[in-house]
Amino acid sequence: MSNGLARASVRFRPASFAGTFLALFFGAAVITACGTLLQTGITASVPPVRYAAAPVVVAADPAVSISVKRGEDRDDVEQALPERARVDAALAGRIAAQSGVAAARPDTAFPVPAGPASGLPVLTGRGFASVGIAGPDEKLVEGRAPGAGEVVLDADTARAAHLAPGAVVALTAPGGSGSYRISGLVAQPATATAASASSASAASAGAAGAAHPQPTAWFADPVADRISGHPGKVDAIAVQPRAGVEPKALAAQVRQAVGNSAEVLTGTARGTAETPVLTESRAMLTGLGGSFGGVAAMTAVFVVMSTVALATGQRAREFALLRAIGATPRQIRRTIATEAVLVAPVAAALGILPGLALARWWFGEMVDRGAVPGTVGLSVGPVPMLAAVGTCTLAALGAGFLAARRPSRLRPSQALGEAAVEPGRPGKVRTVAGLLFAAGGVALAGVAAGLDGANAANTALGVVMCFLLATALLGPWVARTAAGLLGAPLRLGAGASGSLAADNSRANARRLASAITPIVMVTAFCGTLLFLQTTLSHVTGEQLRSGITADHVVGSAGPGLPAGTAARAAEVPGVDAAVGVLRTGAVHRSGDTLSTVNALGIDGDPAKLPRVLDLGVRSGSLADLGRSADTVALDAALAADLGVKVGDRAPLWLGDGTAVRPTVVATYERGLGFGQLLLPRAAVAEHVTAGYDSQVLVADAPGADRSAVAARLADLGAPSGGQGGQGGQGGTKAGGGAQAGAGAVTVADRAGYVAQADRAREIGAWANTVMAGVLGGFAAVTAANTLVMTVLDRRREVALLRLAGTTRRQVRGMLRWEALLVAATGLLVGGVIAWITLVPITRGIAGAAPHIPAGTALPLAAGAVLLCLAATGLPGRALLRARPVAAGGGRQ
């Protein structure tokens, strides 16, 4: 009988399941999208292109890893490196000595800007020994191999610039610059790409996997080693086998030669050597799809269960009638379970396609922002889809069983009477569970207050979820309290409509709670994620405005400024201090996790750093950075997290994974705006992807003409030599790169200073905004769905009011006041949850209270209010169109 009742209910009364259907539909879409991103992060790979002809590639591990003890087990924790990791060039000789190896070619890539007179684009510099790595079609077709002071260009680029062997070009490299004579031309196959170069220069970051050859300059191997900026290190080693040697046997010999000093890559894993950013992309995708996906799945389950429970509760009279005519409790429960099995899989299956569309858009945005290589494809498989359908079905089934407990337990003789009256108070189990979740949220927020900013941020969504569950379970108490506090003003100042709204809200606290909870969810999720970013942006901006004391900021339109630019700027008449800044990153351990931080390599006299940057030094002296390369200045928050002070050694990993323990010489406050680490340039120059300074900060001498100094600084980029002579001086002018054409030099004052975008922070801000949009949008749809369901369930009540003489205007006014009460309560409770969550995070990360700009908060509040008004007003008007007598006698 129960199966037949369920099928009949779904067939003949589909409107009763509309709200449940929508909740399941959107829940499945969110779970599918997050699951697809998680699957992509787990399976992400890029096919080898440049290294396609080499069956074995040797490269460095692109991540730092530590082993941590968790209970009885030990787990490995990884963190992607912010810079390109490299291997020792001497490994090529050890590999070549193996019996099965025909050739072991070292490969490296570094950006090489050309003098403006040459007509050349930014080139990728390589050693000539790498010719042939991309395949047999990559070969010298004209001239000869380069010697000292010579360079070989790829044929297409040289011809496009109208250059031929014998011409002289001015080139700049990270380790030196000068004029080079073209000794020959190399033909590149169409598949030779800048995959390796994409990690060498931001200018070529998007070229990985491109169909066209990358403009390339090959230097003599000793010259390339010297001017690359990382002598003795190479990006990778491509290994070719002797005839008859299988790739598997070759890989075994190579592993024996390199031991634990490098990774031996075969198959599709070779693509990682070309695109090391893939490791970071995988971590981002798995974090987004896993961590956020877990919260999104919990939210979806929460929404589905609350909606199903509401829909089941609204059919109490129907179930009471079934009990009155003899249906057993088991039959009632089976009916509800069968309905869930009939509706949930269909609704969830229909939500899969929108979920895939959301995942595709999300993934495409990450590719466009450079967070994921363009050669990685979205992995679409059945597992996320099955997980979405299964999760939504189980959630609907569980919610139906829980909601059916009360109507199935009623005595047949009392069923109809009990169903007509809302229960007085929530049950003891529900109340205790709600209090436990509230206590858990408070405890988790207290734990977050004792953590550093990054670890505190990881607790944010957990705190929100605890409080949301507490709000849902304690909803009737929250609703009664809100009705009591806000009801008195409504009775006094809002006339009959306000008095009706106040009485209805207090008498139907469960119904009011069902409407309040989704508004709390919207406010809490959006408030936490959005105001975290506004706080970070506000504090960063304040630190930048307060900390920049330089009169001029010298930058470059190319890859950057070569080493020595700060020294040359310091010699310009009218300049008192010039300090170069090389932006990089570092990794540090925080408890059982690894985190990356921004770092600055300081070029010039550190004693003059306060003339151009006011970092708010707390202890020690920045001038001591000049004592040796084995020194560091730390942001005070980072120093506290590492547990070090001035004079101690700080355990760190440089950007390429090199472990160091420099001596702390100073701590400062404004690390969020400028970087949490300051090191001498000499300490980091060989450990970055491309060793160019980002900017040079310049302070004028007292009485100097600022505009005249700016004009002289702009001349630092003026070319000297162009295509003229000096053919034998290639690579001998360290620091002369500005003359050699490092790209157009830009000069701005402090008001025009714009810090180079912190890629990780920028992508993190975008990710938080998208998460706020996804969760907030899902919660908003849920809120509208719930409000419409609660209003449409009030047919009899509205009809009774109309029959008692209440006018349409008074009913509409009552619904508006109830909607405003719901919005006010939801915004207040959600705002409190967001504030409790944000305070420890912003204190840890930014050392400040949450910054809530009116331009963000007011639209959020206005949106919640408009949502409540629309979701109650429109169905309310539909109810009022029916005749009171017909509506009062209609079925529920």
| N/C terminus separation | 21 Å
In helices, the fraction of residues equals 40-55%
| Percentage beta strand | 15-25%
Global geometry: elongated
Mean pLDDT: 81
SS-based structural class?
Answer: alpha+beta
Low-pLDDT ranges: 193-211, 719-742
| Rg calc | 33 Å
Q: Give the tally of β-strands.
A: 26
Number of helices: 31
Give a quick account of the main beta sheet: strands, pairing sense, barrel closure.
11 strands, mixed
SSE map:
Elements: H1 2-12, H2 18-43, E1 56-59, E2 63-70, E3 73-80, E4 87-88, H3 91-96, E5 101-107, E6 110-112, E7 123-127, E8 139-143, E9 150-154, H4 155-160, E10 168-173, E11 176-187, E12 216-219, H5 221-227, E13 233-234, E14 236-241, H6 247-258, E15 263-265, H7 270-274, H8 277-314, H9 316-324, H10 329-350, H11 352-368, H12 382-403, H13 405-409, H14 415-419, H15 428-449, H16 453-458, H17 460-473, H18 475-493, H19 495-507, H20 509-547, E16 552-556, H21 565-570, E17 575-590, E18 593-603, H22 609-612, E19 617-620, E20 631-635, H23 636-642, E21 652-654, E22 659-660, E23 663-668, H24 671-674, E24 677-680, H25 681-684, E25 695-700, H26 706-714, E26 745-748, H27 759-792, H28 795-803, H29 808-846, H30 854-881, H31 884-889
Helix pairs in contact: 1-10, 2-8, 2-10, 2-11, 2-12, 2-27, 8-12, 8-17, 8-27, 10-12, 15-17, 15-29, 17-20, 17-29, 18-19, 18-20, 19-29, 20-27, 20-29, 20-30, 27-30, 29-30
